[in-house]
Amino acid sequence: MSTSPQNAYSPAVPVGPRPAARPNVFHGKPASSVTMFPLRAPEVVVPKVALDAISLSYRATSGESLLALDKIDLEVRPGEFLCIVGPSGCGKSTLLHLIAGLCPQTSGKILVDGKPVNGPGTDRILIFQELGLFPWLTVGGNVEFGMKMKNLPKAEREERAQYYLRLVHLLNFRDSYIHQLSGGMRQRVALARALATEPDVLLMDEPFAALDAQTRDLLHDELERIWAETGRTIIFVTHNVREAVRLGDRVALMTFRPGRVKQEFSVKLPRPRQMEQPDVARTAGEILGYLREEINKSLEEEYADEKAR
Amino acid sequence: MKKLAKQFIFYSVLLGIWALLAKLRVWPPYLFPPPWGVGHALWDGFADHSFWIGIAVTMKRMLIGYSLSVVLGMALGLAVSSNKFLEETLGGLLVSLQSLPSICWIPLAVLWFGLSEKAILFVVLMGSLLSVTIAMEDGRKQMPKIYGMAGRNLGASGFRLFWSVLLPASLPFIVNGMKQGWAFAWRSLIQAEMIFLSLGLGQLLMMGRDLSDMSQVMAVMILIIILGYMVDGLIFRTMERRLQEKYGLTPA
User: Fold this and answer.
1) Backbone phi, then psi, for A255, in 5-degree steps?
2) What is the side-by-side strand order in the sheet with A81-85?
């Protein structure tokens, strides 16, 4: 193991207590000059990510055109932790792929910092549900991959990789290969790999769905801590309402086919939270009431398919 | 160790039965030579250098023909798998051509190139090119899409995406193609050498037949088996197993 100093590297992004500092769109001279008597520019927060009437339709095998996402409007503030919940098949994963720029939407606009998205960019990193870690690289190699693509010098890559591996408590496994790690450890490698490219926005697609409850709880704590430490904006997709309430500043509920944002809930509970906390359970219960309608709709459709056959 | 002991016992028993049948003279010795006769032929073959020369000639042809077919096969497989038009047209032709045993190329090769080294290499090439191509094409299709997406997501594109993500991601399939290509090339080469009579192990085999020297025939057969197994069984299979384990393709 390396013996370099504890914090040789520190990321260049806002670090500090929540809530993260809101960027001021007023880019003029600092307001220190007393003689000025202008109208102060109102503090408008440019959303980190803004979805403007996003629709996506695709051609089904039967030949007909199906609407997967229907005019989705959503705004995410800088440093916000947004959770998206919905029944399976509502297109919430697809939405993340769109924001990541991995496939194009049929209509509508995706803005990051006010600029339209076309194609992938390392300002938004998606952690896939299947992770997509590269088995031919070591843990360290995986974490350094994004930086390598950015042509960062070797020394800097190693330093940064060390910083983020320590953040997810995997520094000792730097030279291991992915197949040698447990599920929870792989999850943390994926997190470190995403963080190491220092994206403004972290997109997470049901990252903890396949883990056992204890590992998941641990990773919730770690994710919350890392989020607080790094000040990133996180969009987190899950079908688990309690997980969404545990983690999110805000929870957006999506409808079943076509996917729309049905409702948004602001979660005002103090942090850190726990999955078992009564107020988390109660809030989740309320949201679940709305979600159940959608789940029923999805089930009805499935059963209808069965009858039609 | 246990497995090794089992194998030792198995081969000892096999040899014992062979020796017994030969000793009992169930068949005349010129048709069914005893193990020591074959051992003697092996010894003689290496002593008068004819086996060494045979092995050297065969391996040289193998190396040239096989390398050629791997390079061409990979390029062809890549082209076919990345172009819809080529896949639907050339892809189908390649699969149908593969049903042609490579020995069927010999008459064509002889007429085109004469009884020359080129003709032999042509047969080897045709024997293994298609299997490498098809394995490569299948590999590209079977490769999990997630790696390409993850690579693009992390900022890779164009050549770097291919070099640092798509190529390593398809490595298990490439090795599989190389292994299949080797097996086909090996068979094609020995077949071609038996017909061309131009040095090599295949010719030694035919020489044994012409001299009615069953011991030499069996000695060369054993040589071909051992050489083939060493490359296929030891090198390729080990490589394949390691890769599959590393890539999580089999429960390790």
Assistant:
1) -90, 165
2) A124-127, A201-205, A233-238, A81-85, A250-254, A261-266
Check: CB of residue B100 under 8 Å from CB of residue B158.
no
For chain B, the domains span: 50-246
CA angle B29, B32, B34 (to 5 degrees): 75
ipTM over 0.90: no
Q: Which span out of A27-41, B183-197, B238-252 was modeled with the highest average pLDDT?
A: B183-197
Sequence spans of domains, chain A:
49-123+201-308, 133-198
Q: How far apart are the first and last CA of chain B?
A: 20
Kind of pairing between the strands at A107-112 and A115-116: antiparallel
Which of A52-56, A87-91, B35-39, B248-252 is predicted with the least confidence, judged by mean pLDDT? B248-252
User: B241 touching A, CB under 8 A?
Assistant: no
Contact A135 B150 (CB under 8 A): no
Q: Give the pTM.
A: 0.73
Q: What size, in residues, is chain B?
A: 252
Return the residue in B154, B164, B246 with the most chain A beta carbons within 10 A, the one to mutate for interface testing.
B154
Chain B closest-CA separation from residue A135 CA (Å):
5
Is A149's CB within 8 Å of B169's CB?
A: no
Assign domain B50-246 one CATH number from 1.10.3720.10, 1.20.120.80, 3.40.50.970, 1.10.1740.10.
1.10.3720.10
Question: Which candidate from B146, B171, B252 shows the least CB-CB separation from A132?
Answer: B146
CATH C-level class of A49-123+201-308? alpha beta
Residue A130 in contact with partner chain B when CB distance is under 8 A: yes
For residue A62, the cross-strand partners are none
Cβ-proximal residues to A179 (8 Å cutoff; 6+ apart), any chain: A135, B245, B246, B247, B248, B252
Report the relative pairing of strands A250-254 and A115-116 from DSSP bridges: unpaired
Across the interface, which of A122, A131, A136 has its CB nearest the CB of B154? A122
- Please tell me if residue B154 touches chain A, with a CB cutoff of 8 Å: yes
Count CA atoms closer than 13 A to B212's CA, side-chain side.
4
A109: enclosing H helix or E strand? strand A107-112
Q: Does A134 touch chain B (CB under 8 A)?
A: yes
